[in-house]
Amino acid sequence: MGDQASILRKMAWLKDRKAKYISIASGKGGVGKTNFSVNLAYMLSKFGKKVLLFDADLGLANVDIILNIAPLRTIKDYLNGDAKVDDVVIPNVKGFDVFPASSGFMELSSLSSDDFDKIVDMFLSLDKIYDYIIFDTAAGIAENVLRFITFSDIFVVITLAEPTAITDAYALIKVVNMKIGDLNPYVVVNMVNSEKQGNFVFDNLSKVVKNFLKKEIRYLGSIKRDKNLIKAVANQKIAAEVFPDSDFALGVKNIANKLLSIDEKNRNISIEKFLYMRG
User: Fold this and answer.
1) d(Cα 10, Cα 17) in Å, to the nearest integer?
2) pTM, full prediction
3) Domain boundaries, the chain
4) Are 62 and 34 a contacting pair, CB within 8 Å?
5) What sign results for the dihedral spanned by CA atoms 207, 211, 213, 218?
6) Which of 163, 165, 188, 185 is nearest to 174 (CA)?
7) In whole angstroms, what is the distance from residue 277 CA to residue 116 CA?
8) What is the pLDDT of residues 89-114, one digit of tens each?
9) Does domain 2-278 fall into CATH 2.60.120.200?
10) Vertex 36, ends 220 and 227: CA angle to 5°?
């Protein structure tokens, strides 16, 4: 009875959430997903929004490395009952808050139903604090990735103008379409040489998705290849902060502006879908 009451409480919350939840995902690693997530969180905070960046690559943390922070507590401590939510959240990291993952813990790569319930409980309390909660998911199509995407209002796929990245982006969209179904992906093409190249990649990916999956995808924009990003990463700095006029920063700023205008929240997640999320 207690478990049923807990599920009903969580279902009610899923239908009436304050924050917008954004999953940033990619079919493969090495496409700049985490750098994009960090800079997007920074940019949305600069627009006056209260943002939480949640490192959803639970067993292979990267957000803390990029930001040059050393968390005292991580998601592992919370799930083990050794820390409360407030003990783990790192406040005001360059204007936004961070919920760090752990690194090198294989058991976190596949959450149990109990652990997933604990994560949902966390957002029952965090939801009212934030305007945006961003999930920087693991690369690929693992179960944890799909859970966070199911959880989200907005699903963003990061890809490159390279055959393997485009193929893997399509594979991710295909799996999400099969497992979740009611989410229309948004696409960002990273590290392009020109806006024209970004448009070309998106147009071709869109045609394939429409033809084979009968699904519409939408374009958030492209981000140009930029040496300033490499400098920022090497120094564990946020590129949009230290190089605000760079091509990379302006690309992220343009995408952040578009996300501010997207009004997709309070998705009606069915009891069947929620139970799928629990595993």
Assistant:
1) 10
2) 0.94
3) 2-278
4) yes
5) positive
6) 185
7) 8
8) 999 999 999 999 987 666 666 778 88
9) no
10) 105
State how far the Cα of 145 lies from the Cα of 149, in Å rounded to an integer.
Answer: 6
- As given in the structure block, the two tokens for residue 130 are 């934030």
Query: Could you read off the pLDDT of 200-234 as tens digits, one per residue?
Result: 999 999 999 999 999 999 999 999 999 999 999 99
Query: Is the C-alpha dihedral spanning 29, 32, 33, 38 positive or negative?
Result: positive
In sequence order, the 6+-apart residues with CB closer than 8 A to the CB of 126 are 19, 52, 85, 89, 133
| Contact between 27 and 139 (Cβ < 8 Å) | yes
- Distances in Å between the Cα of 243 and the Cα atoms of 129, 226, 233, 252, 278 are 29, 10, 12, 12, 41
Report the alpha-carbon distance of residue 186 to residue 264 in Å, rounded: 12
